[in-house]
Amino acid sequence: MSRVGRNPIPVPSGVNISVDNGNTVTVKGPKGELSEQFNGDMDISQENGEVVVKRPTDSRDHRSQHGLTRALINNMVVGVTDGFSKRLEIHGVGYRAELKGKNLVLLVGYSHPVEIEPASKEMAFEVDRDGRGFTVSGIDKCEVGQTAAVIRKVRPPEPYKGKGIRYAGEYVRIKAGKTKA
User: Fold this and answer.
1) pLDDT for 41-100, tens place per residue?
2) What does pTM read for this prediction?
3) Residues of the chain with CATH 3.90.930.12
4) The CATH fold of domain 84-167
5) Is there a contact between 126 and 135 (Cβ–Cβ < 8 Å)?
6) What SS3 string covers 70-121?
7) How far apart are alpha carbons 32 and 27 in whole angstroms?
8) Could you give the maximum distance between any two Cα atoms of the chain, in Å?
């Protein structure tokens, strides 16, 4: 049995979970609402204030879907209660970020500013005072991670000076430059 899949998901107070016949799970909480369709073979049920995911057989496909389904539902519950966030940092002379309404504007060495819109109404950007660091936050873990990856791709850290946008705590190995022969 899957070690992840067999763990029940505790449902905190203030969170409503509904499962319909097509295995569409809707989670409503204080921060918003998330809904997702899951594999029809998985048995998703609520028991004693917990959500339990069971699989019909031990086939390879059902085993792989079991833990995935449980993890995704757990992420939905955590998202509507606490939310998720990714922190990014900007390194480089003259590089900075700023907010323009709800949009994030990046000034990272191009001839034009790069403007990034939030992927959904629940997503928000928060920029530090100095413009060197910012946070992407929202209720959907996948959406937050994807948006952070798209922002990092605007100017990924380069290996010679380390300039660019990187995740907080990310280590960039600096290469040696050219030497005089």
Assistant:
1) 999 999 888 999 999 999 999 998 999 999 999 999 999 999 999 999 999 999 999 999
2) 0.89
3) 9-81, 84-167
4) Outer Surface Protein A; domain 3 (3.90.930)
5) yes
6) HHHHHHHHHHHHCCEEEEEEEECCCCEEEEECCEEEEECCCCCCEEECCCCC
7) 8
8) 74
First-to-last C-alpha distance (Å) of the chain: 62
Q: Tokens at residue 73, please?
A: 């539902």
- State the Cα–Cα distance between residues 73 and 122, nearest whole angstrom: 18
In this prediction, residue 59 carries a pLDDT of 92
Sign of CA dihedral 99, 111, 117, 147: negative
162-174 confidence digits (pLDDT tens): 999 999 999 999 9
Residues 6+ apart with CB under 8 A from 61: none
State both tokens at 145: 């991670």
**Class of CATH domain 9-81:** alpha beta
